[in-house]
Amino acid sequence: MENKKNKILVVGSSASAYALVKVLKKSSSVENVYVTSCNPLFAELAECIDIREDKPEELLEFVVENSIDLTVAVSELAVKSDIASVFNTASQMIFAPSKQSANAFISKAAAKKFLYKQRIPTPKFAIFDKPQLAYDYLKTANMPLIIKCDENSLSVPDRFAAVNVSEARTYIDDLFFRGEKKVIMEDYVYGHDFTFYVITDGYNVLPISAVADYKFMSDGDGGIFTSGTGAFAPDYKVSFEFENKLMKDVAFRVVNSLEKSGSPYVGIMGFDAVLKDDGSYCLTGLKTFFQEHDADLVLNLLDEDVVQLFIACAVGSFADDYNFIRLKNKFGVSCVVSSTGNDEKVINGLDLIEDEAEISYFNVKKNPYFEYIASKGKSFVITRTASTLATARNLLYEDLSCVNFSGIKYRKDVCAPVK
Question: What is the pTM of this model?
Answer without folding.
Answer: 0.95
